[in-house]
Design a protein that fits this description.
The chain is of the alpha/beta class.
Length: about 120
């Protein structure tokens, strides 16, 4: 079982190693970055390839749009919302869900310093 949190650099490395179309998915899993911030936050700054699914929409959309077998990296602004969503997803059988610790703020400081901070 995966830890509930993953660091931004580790998440970035995992995404880079598992790009769609390259068939290099670890243990057969797809790796997906799910952004649970609000649309205005996503419009302000987001990570290319992430799926916007605001926290309030997760209960209605998760079982239709997410695969419980995928490795889901959950991202928010600072990590609190993503940890809450990760806990909920784990309770729903998404055992490979992980919160990106520190959120997009940590990502902009430790992975891609060209991303704007807000």
């Amino acid at each position: 079982m995966y830890d509930f949190e993953i660091t931004a650099p580790d998440a970035a490395a995992l995404l880079a190693e598992n790009k769609p179309g390259e068939n290099q998915y670890a243990k057969g899993q797809r790796v997906r970055l799910i952004d649970v911030r609000e649309p205005w936050e996503y419009e302000t700054v987001h990570i290319e390839g992430s799926l916007l699914m605001p926290m309030g929409d997760v209960p209605a959309r998760a079982h239709q749009e997410l695969d419980p077998d995928d490795r889901l990296l959950i991202l928010c602004h600072h990590g609190a919302r993503s940890l809450s969503v990760t806990n909920w997803l784990r309770q729903q059988g998404f055992d490979a869900a992980q919160s990106v610790a520190g959120g997009i703020d940590a990502w902009s400081q430790r992975v891609d310093t060209f991303l704007p901070r807000y």
